[in-house]
Amino acid sequence: MIEVTRLSGSTVVLNADLIEKIEATPDTVVTLTTGACFVVRESVADVIDVVIAYKARIFCQNPVDAERHALMVVHGSELE
Questions:
Q1: Residue ranges with strand state E in 1-80
Q2: Better-predicted residue by pLDDT, 68 or 32
Q3: Regarding beta strands 2-5 and 11-14, do their DSSP bridges make them parallel or antiparallel, or are they unpaired?
Q4: Is the pLDDT of residue 7 over 90?
């Protein structure tokens, strides 16, 4: 689950596994596989970064490694 900010300033938590596409229109629109659409304040890159961090946290057993892995993926570094 990822938290994003609607244009009104309220936050909404989305199921990252249901994201079908993220568009810059120029507002950022997150469309879920259910057909629901959310216009959010975060940029497309920011939403992608949040999803990557969420996935890293879910799939890495060690929380320290998950944070490190997410930062490396976001910044394009190679894993050591």
A1: 2-5, 11-14, 19-24, 28-32, 37-40
A2: 32
A3: antiparallel
A4: yes
Task: Give the number of residues written for the chain.
Answer: 80
Q: How far is CA 23 from CA 19, 56, 63, 69, in A?
A: 11, 23, 30, 25
- C-alpha to C-alpha distance for 50 and 34, rounded to whole angstroms: 20
Quote the tokens at residue 64: 């320290």
Spatial separation of the C-alpha atoms in residues 2 and 10, rounded to whole Å: 14
What's the rounded Cα separation, in Å, for the pair 30 and 77? 27
Q: What is the pTM of this model?
A: 0.76
> Which stretch of DSSP H or E encloses residue 32?
strand 28-32
